C-alpha cells in the first residue's frame, strides 16, 4: 500500500510539471549543473554551469527523503527541501521538491508564502487541514486532505497545513522553481533583523505595543 501511494504521489508531481510552464526561465541547453560562482563573477539570477563533459549522474540525484524530519520544535513540523543547493542538476529546470513531516495532532506548517513558486502538495500519510488566502479582498480556500489527496497553492499566496489527526502525517510537495524561497509570515513580521518599528506593527495588527514587544521578543526580532 505504501509503495502504491508513493508511486501515485510522484506520478502526480511529474504530470503536473510536464503540463505546466515552469516559472523560472526556460533552459537553453540540455542541463546546467550548478557550481560555485567564479571569484569576482557577477551573480545572474541562478547558478554558474559546470562543464557538461564533467557532469556525473550524482549531479542529478539526491538521497534521504525516506528519512522522517525532526518535528520536535515550536510548530511541530519539518520541511526537507531539495532545491538547487542540494541537487545541482536542478539548475535552470524550474522545479524543486520537499518532504513535509507533521507531529501528531497540531503539527503545523505555519502560514507562509513562496515568492517564486506555485506548490502542489500530495498527502502520503495522515490527515491535513490545508488552505490558502487570496490577495485583497482576502478569501480562504481550505479543506481536509487524506492520503492520496492533492492540493495546489498558487504562487505568492499565503498558505498553511495543519495535522488534525492523532497520528504523524507526511506529505510531499513539488514547487515550480529551482529555488522557491519561503517567507514565514509570523517570523518575517515579528522576527526581522533589524526589527520593524513597533508602532508600525501595533497599528497594522491593532495590537497593544506591549503585545508587539512580546511577539518581537518571542520571534527574536528585538534587541
From TrEMBL:
Keywords: Apoplast, Disulfide bond, Glycoprotein, Manganese, Metal-binding, Secreted, Signal
Positions with a binding annotation for oxalate: 109, 114, 119
MF terms (GO), sorted A to Z: manganese ion binding
InterPro entries associated with the record: Cupin_1, Germin, Germin_Mn-BS, RmlC-like_jellyroll, RmlC_Cupin_sf
Record's function text: May play a role in plant defense. Probably has no oxalate oxidase activity even if the active site is conserved.
Membership in a protein family: Belongs to the germin family.
Name of the protein: Germin-like protein
Organism listed in the record: Jatropha curcas
